[in-house]
Amino acid sequence: MECIKILPLKHLTHFQHEQIWSARLEAGKVWNQCRDIHLEARSSSQLWPNRTDLQQATKGLYAMHSQSVQMICHTFLQNIDTTRKLRKSGVKIRYPYKTKHTYTLMWPAQAVKVTENRVILPMGRGREPLVLNLKLPEGAGACKLVFNDGYELHVTYHVDDAQESPGTRKACVDLGEIHQAAVSTDSGQAIVVSGRGIRSLKRQRSKALGEIAQKRSRCKKGSKRYRKLQKARRKVSKRYQQRIRDLRHKGTRKVINFCIEQQVGSLFVGNPHGVREKKSGRKHNQRMSNWEFGRDIQYLKEKSVKAGIQCFTGSERGTSSQCPECSHRQKPKGRQWKCKKCGFSGHRDVVGSVNMHPIAFNSKIGFPQHITYLRPGYLSRRRSSSLDTGQSCLKRRRGHKPYAGGQQSCLRKSEHQPPTCGVSQETGHRSEVAQKPILFTGLGVSLGLGELSPLAQELFTLKEFQIFFAEIQKQVDAPRGTDYRQATLDLLEQELNRLKAEKDALSASSAINQTQTHQP
Questions:
Q1: Positions in the chain short of pLDDT 70
Q2: Distance CA 400, CA 290 (A)
Q3: Using CA atoms, how far apart are residues 494 and 500, in angstroms rounded to an integer?
Q4: Which end of the chain is less congested by CB atoms within 10 angstroms, N or C?
């Protein structure tokens, strides 16, 4: 199996930038010539040019390596073949017609020279090669130099496929925007992988890029300020893109690991290709346009092949609007699917996954009784541990503003602190054994009752102990970044011991008074 490893090029010299830019300009001219030759053949009703015709027409005319020119010709013909197939299937699409100023640089495996920690990419006869200080994976082959808010080197390498399939069970995957994937198997098990982290990152990216675009609209195009904002935009976009791609890979990996555990041999992935056709308002249209379900399908296919699972796709139309018990159709509302006819209730995305089994495997299965909720990865330390991401805390942190009373800080908690909302960071389940937290709002400290002694748990309901919350804020005064946890616990134990002594003294005095009153 051929895989691609993406290596960012962060430390290119000025000479290397000039090398790459001049070669990209030449690559754009090669593409434009191939387009002109093909357009002339189509308009004059002649035979379309093949690989040999394009290679002969572009040979020796450009300041590039000869095999890089051939790779551009091959890519152009692949686009022509793909366009022809789509047009036959009814898709309205044009043959390549745009004029490209620059184009991606490509080298086949036989043109790439790899040493221990270097990659040498030829730039043509009489020109200096492009030398990159990179360590490529074993079995590295063809390379591609891509500009994606910064230069990246895409390297193909070979990975051996699994020799045997994990099992013979069948599973279906329902892709979504709120939940990245919902998987159900014919063994009665199901998982739901949350996509809210990806969704929030995309929202943050859109807001950040919108602020930069607003500032750039007041600048003269090409000015120094304009170029600085353009550089900032690329940096922000690149950072969010890498984080989103990381979560997508982690989410699809959890799907494949679940299929391996359940011994799945055939995996069907629904293709929601018609969701973008319906207009649903400005904000929802933006969410749909940012939904990269094609990448999820590609990642699932690649990981399935590596795991020995047979993966195929198909239409999922109508699966989310049909009851899995009585086949009644209705428009779903909310995340819980409730049938108006038979009273069935279940997770909306799992319902869509269950309804795919008759389409993919001609077999109906029962609704899973056990559903596991997963997150693609652990939450970042900059994010709140509450279910609704506390962006107000991040804004206060960036602005170095003091924390207002009555608000819980989500940034000063130590690494060993449990989630204050009682939700598992890995699975998303609400923990049944989660203990009620005690919040010290002024200090940004959250302590569970289990961390205190039995004496503290016994006296938690005392009025004096509740009043002590306000007093402890005045006693602990440490600089920013100090862990308040141990100091808070020590002060609590001291105050609780004092309260215990007073309570015992009051009990003893009351007992003595009762004894004296009953004496004759």
A1: 378-489, 511, 513-520
A2: 32
A3: 10
A4: C
pLDDT, one tens digit per residue, over 389-441 is 444 444 444 444 443 433 333 434 334 433 333 333 334 443 333 333 343 43
Taking a C-beta distance cutoff of 8 angstroms, is the pair 313, 270 a contact?
yes
Task: Name residues whose C-beta falls within 8 Å of residue 104's C-beta, 6 or more positions apart in sequence.
Answer: 24, 27, 144, 145, 146, 147
The closest alpha carbon to 99, from 29, 50, 23, 39, belongs to 29
Judged by DSSP in three states, 107 sits in strand
* Reported pTM: 0.67
Give the DSSP H or E segment for 116. Answer: none
- 181, 251 in Cβ contact below 8 A? yes
Could you tell me the end-to-end alpha-carbon distance of the chain, in angstroms, rounded to an integer? 99
Burial class (CB in 10 A: 0-12, 13-18, 19+), 27: buried
Closest CA to 126 of 64, 170, 56: 64
Exposure string over 385-412, b if 16+ CB within 10 A, otherwise e: beeebbeebbebeeeeeebeeeebbbeb
Residue 83 CB partners (closer than 8 Å, separation 6+): 93, 94, 95, 96
Name the helix (H) or strand (E) containing 70: helix 66-88
